[in-house]
Amino acid sequence: MPSVAPPRTRDNSAPAGPPSQREVLDWLRLFLEDGQWVEIRAPKVRGRSYARFTDPAAAANQALRWSGKAPGVYFTLNPVRGDIPTGRAATDLDVLRRRWLLIDCDPTRPADTSATDAEKAAAIALAGEVRELLTGRGFPAPIEADSGNGGHLAYRIELPNDDRSRDLIKAVLTALNERFGTTAVAIDTSVFNASRICKLYGTKACKGLDTPERPHRYSRVTKVPAELVPIPAELLAELAAEGRPGKRGQGGTSKPPATDRRAARGPRPSDVEARASKYLARCQPAISGRGGHNQTIKVAVEVGPGFDLAPDVAFRLLWTEYNPRCEPPWSERDLRRKVEEAYRIEARRGWHLLKGHANGKGNGRAGGVFLPPAPPDSTPPGPVPPAIRATAGDGRPAIVITTEEHHVIDQAIAALAAEVCVYQRGNALVTVLRDPSRGQREKIHRPKGSPRIVPLPGPRLRELLTKTA
After folding, report:
1. Using H for helix, E for strand and C for coil, what is the string for 6-22?
2. What is the DSSP annotation of 134-181?
């Protein structure tokens, strides 16, 4: 820990003018080790929205240049590698280890807006309740901060950057939100990932319009302990064990909307959902200023239509497992629109369910954005699908309509495959007319006998199915 004089503490009720440049630098140094690489980000700022530094003074100066020009200015809480390729922001894999546990008490409010004074006060009060409980359990004192819209507690930890640590931090945040979260204020459970960014204290929080009721405010550190001591691992494990799997808090912007909570408490996800979830965990998150919109659309296409999930199921998976890793996370409305667009632009269904087929294109990429191959299906093989085993008494294939819809479609396609006059063109079934009428030939300026590809009409489709199955 660098030897710097701790910033003075402040009363949250005091007038909050702009912090000094010295304060911003001192507050940032509290979180950094000597020589540590830190990434500063300003999502939605014009031009390049991130930069990496080993000099805290240079990092603080860049943050102040961005302050007020973006909805917020942030820094990576945990140390990152110094050899991250130019042209991309840090990801979870770039984090060397975990040094900080962030508890973010955030008031429930409309998306992309600042908090009212009352909402902010409620969030800071909740942070105080959390601190008192943890202190009573033997937790060391945290850094306390005002995010501009709510309350932050930053606890020192020493954990490796691995799956076990990720799951531990996620369980800790879930347990705290279950205990303290209300309809008015929630503890953000999405800040568990290793490359999580945190408000750079001293910069301005500028979400939404700056109005008297919901003003833009400066963030600041409000209290620094005399000594920053890492939380013993056993205390974290005890707290994590109190979380009840499947239970969700009562409010907050980081949790799925109420319409999806029933699904979270329902039956165990299907094998297809489990495969989609594994696939989703390997997709790159969306980062503002780095093609985040297109990346989210492509991921939604691969997970929703790609695994033939219902739109509501695809949204739930994206909201709970993908959106928390995006920087910044999408609002519920924006993410729903992206899921709807994914189903609108992609007519194919279920290509990830075909064994050995990565993503319908065979190369693991879509539009230049990395999409990992679908995980193999590790479940034991089930019974032979009806489309394969069912046959009628006269030898024609039988179409069983009492099974799942995609099996019915598979059976129909398998039956039509025997017809030499039926072809697949893109996502449609077509047929070829060898000799169009004279009027039609004159209209299209083709000689007699020229072939013409036309969609297979519904009546003709029914006729062929009746004949072949």
Report:
1. CCCCCCCCCCCCCCCHH
2. HHHTTPPPPEEEE-SSSEEEEEEEEEESSHHHHHHHHHHHHHHHHHH-
Residue-wise pLDDT for 226-265, tens only, equals: 999 999 999 999 999 987 544 434 444 444 443 343 333 3
Whether 5 shows a pLDDT value over 90: the answer reads no
Long-range contacts of 412-420 (CB under 8 A, 24+ apart): 412/465, 412/469, 414/387, 414/388, 415/465, 415/468, 415/469, 416/464, 416/465, 416/468, 418/468, 419/464, 419/468
Q: DSSP secondary-structure letter at 183?
A: S
> Contact 194/92 with Cβ under 8 angstroms?
yes
| Alpha carbon distance 320, 332 (integer Å) | 11
| Amino acid sitting at position 440 | Q
Residues 6+ apart with CB under 8 A from 235: 137, 138, 139
Residue range 21-240, CATH number:
3.90.920
> Domain map of the chain by residue range?
21-240, 274-370, 386-468
Taking a C-beta distance cutoff of 8 angstroms, is the pair 152, 212 a contact?
no
Question: Given the structure tokens 């969030």, which residue do they identify?
Answer: 123
Rounded to a whole number of angstroms, the distance between the first and last alpha carbons of the chain is 76
Closest of 203, 166, 169, 196 to residue 327, by C-alpha: 196
How far apart are the C-alpha atoms of 440 and 262, rounded to whole Å? 56
- Give the model confidence (pLDDT) of 34-88 as tens digits: 999 999 999 888 888 899 999 999 999 999 999 999 999 999 999 999 999 888 8
CB distance 219 to 154 below 8 Å:
no
pLDDT tens by residue, 380-405? 444 434 433 344 445 566 665 555 55
| Residues in contact with 111: Cβ distance below 8 Å, sequence separation at least 6, in sequence order | 253, 331, 332, 333, 334
Q: Give the number of other Cβ atoms within 10 Å of residue 163's Cβ.
A: 8
CA distance 61 to 48: 16
Nearest C-alpha neighbor of 342 from the set 388, 396, 290, 276: 276
Residue 231, Cβ density class (10 Å: 0-12 exposed, 13-18 middle, ≥19 buried)? buried
